[in-house]
Amino acid sequence: MVTVDELPAVKQGQWFFGGVTVCPVRIVRHHILQGTHDPEDPPELAEDRRAECYYVRYHLPRLDTPWLDGGMALSLREAVFLAERKLGPVVNWND
Length: 95
Known about the structure:
This protein starts with 8 loop residues before the first strand and ends with a strand. It has helices at 43-46, 76-87, and strands at residues 9-17, 21-33, 49-58, 68-73, 91-94. By secondary structure, it is an alpha+beta fold.
């Protein structure tokens, strides 16, 4: 099974950590909307389901971790907005 981080980017670019350090950001399309997996949530929120969705992934400077989770959206436009809101006012997208 392919993980979200192994999917090809549908949109990618850079954001500026602290306004100066360039870090990568990418948006990938996936067909599984991940649920919360919280047993106290209703099934429609807790369980994974099939749906076209977009995941925002990004890196921080000087960390050897895999891509960090920037959230999930149901459209590419919403994912771009989510990335820009989370990572700051300046995200340069490679179009």
